[in-house]
Amino acid sequence: MAEPFQSQSLQYRASGSVGINLFGHLPTTVDELIRHADLAMYQAKTAGKNTYRFFDSGMQKMVDERAWMGNELRHAVQRKQLSLHYQGQFDVQHGLVGAEALLLWSFPGRGLVPLEVFIPLAEQIGVIRELGNWVLGVACVELARWAAIPPMAHLVMAVNVSSQQFQLPGFVAAVFDALSRTGARPDRSKLELTESVLIQDLSGVRRSMATLKAHGVGFSLDDFGTGYSSLKYLKQLALEQLKIDQSFVADVMTDSHDAAIARTIVTLGHSLGLQVIAEGVETVAQRDFLLSIGCNIFQGYLYSEPHSAKAFEDFVCIKQRGANAQA
Ligand code: C2E
Ligand code: MG
Ligand code: MG
After folding, report:
1. Under CATH, what is the fold of the domain 82-326?
2. Ligand that comes closest to the CA of residue 226
3. Model pTM score
4. Which one of 39, 124, 125, 213 counts the least CB within 10 Å of its CB?
């Protein structure tokens, strides 16, 4: 197949992806044989094409597991298996300034399903809109509730939005709907986008961001430095914050390259007039290094773990009482 071939004046090259299924002594049907070979062929394609894969029973198990989990995910909202947890964000000068809402899917008998597994799955099976709207709704209800609790009234709620979700038709309207339904203040809300949102329809993304920003909604670029990090869009988009990815923060004390990357992100962000927040800050040494390079907003276990709504409220109120007692 690798041989080039000529058709009219053009030369063509083809490549093949091959799925192989061994059989002989196993009782099986023709349909099943073909289905398994097909599965192996898709594995070959996923592995970069132009190669071959043998079918093994693990492949079928993976496919079955995904189909099963997808089905469960479709019912997760209505079965009340989802919840949001809130992790504080701290500014050196002003103390607690906001919280990031983090989604949890707690599956009976299996515990927590990792987000890295179920967010892509939700995108693939077409339930990310429902899931994302549920997150927006719950986060806005909570944000509106904070407004009535004095030590929490100033906090900004950051909500993660997957890039597919952001580009769904009607996303902007869904945000406005969640805000107006709950009475949450747009200028206390922030959306965390990842760089992958920027490789697709850039002008559409820019328009949506500008519309939301005109109503006060803020934007943070999550996991900065791990994706495309094109400097061109940084100045084109209505961003207000860059988030240094936790993989860099984790090794700032031991890896001089990560330290240099963190330093560069801080300088870049500040020179473009953006806030820079570090995520995944776990130790005093990491915090002190980040402070020394000019980063002054932090999120991570050193400051606060993600808490349930009630536990986060207690955390904030206890902190506030401590501050009052000191004053
Ligand atoms: P992210 O937005 O970068 O969130 C930060 C992740 O780091 C969270 O993981 C958080 O629990 C974890 N983390 C916080 N502090 C520390 C720390 O000090 N050390 C370490 N090692 N980890 C820390 P989580 O909750 O598993 O979330 C993973 C990712 O899933 C998030 O990364 C975000 O991209 C995505 N995600 C979370 N909630 C949502 C959601 O509601 N919608 C969408 N589309 N994506 C979400
Ligand atoms: Mg985030
Ligand atoms: Mg992140």
Report:
1. TIM Barrel (3.20.20)
2. 3
3. 0.88
4. 124
